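Customer ticket, subject: "Can you confirm the structure for RING-type E3 ubiquitin transferase?"

Message body: Hello, I'm evaluating your service for our small team and ran a test protein. I'd like someone to confirm that this is what the system normally returns, since I don't have a reference to compare against.
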Amino acid sequence: MAHVALTESPLMAREKRCVPRASDKQQSSSGKKTKEDGETAAAHDKRALTVTVDPAVLECDACFGPLAPPLYQCTRGHITCATCMEETGQGCLWCRSTEATMRCRVMEHFLAAVSVPCSFTHLGCAAMVPYGDREAHEATCVHAPCYCPIRGCSSPYSGVSLLDHLRHNHPEIRRTCVDRGSLSAIMMRGGELARLLCLADDKDRAVAVFLLVVDQCEAPATGRSLWMVRLKAEPPADVKEEEEDESEASSKEEFRYKIMVSGNGGVLSLVGETVPPVGRLTAPYRPTTFLFVPGAMLDSHRHHEGSSLLLFAELN
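Agent reply: Thanks for trying us out. I re-ran your input and got the following:
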């Protein structure tokens, strides 16, 4: 069961003002209402109610997602969201009724008055947010648990972006500047788990920042896995508006990357496209694309465990 707080929405308050109450008529006719009674009535109208609601009541009967206006109801009482309505036209996706549905204004008014606590109250967030804005709030909540893609990191953490986390909690990570469209040789030292790759423009401003992760794999497949994560840099508070617009535009730019490792038996390479920049990881990172270098491919004399690994990276 979920506890929600109900308060009057502007629409509900406006409708109430349009309909005179019996108490208003009595006050205008008799003129004997005291000031204290009026203040008590006003306080009664504005107070919030805390009720217990089954979470299923606030879900779409078809897709079971959170309800958000506009809402529709069939003749049998099933409430569905606009997305489900678009899939079926005018029918009900739950009971397959072909009868026309109608707007469910009552539930829309109810949701407009519902405020729910953030899911991260146990982590320190005390916000009460409108039900329809809960997902958007939790996606940017500074108390949300975040994760680091580097093995051995004491995750989860909260409050900062992934890039800030790397800067403060992993000061040992080195930074390498690379040129666009050209292979850059990178020597990963023994025990080095990650490297920050910075792509700069003609004015030496960082256009994009990538995290190159090297993960030591153990039995049954001994070797190393390499993958790329593009990081999102939060603009400083005192940044100019035009600079912020440039930063936002660059964050939407798509990049292709290439990783190459040579060793016994030939060369292994990985070519891929970076996903949108990662501000924070709200779940443990699972790379969908990575380059696995078998231990047998690495020279046992020069690339044994604890030694350096030479690789090449290209961004464009």
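A couple of notes from the result: Helices lie at 10-18, 22-30, 35-46, 82-88, 105-112, 134-140, 162-169, 241-251. Residues 35-46 form the longest helix (12 residues). Feel free to reply with more questions.
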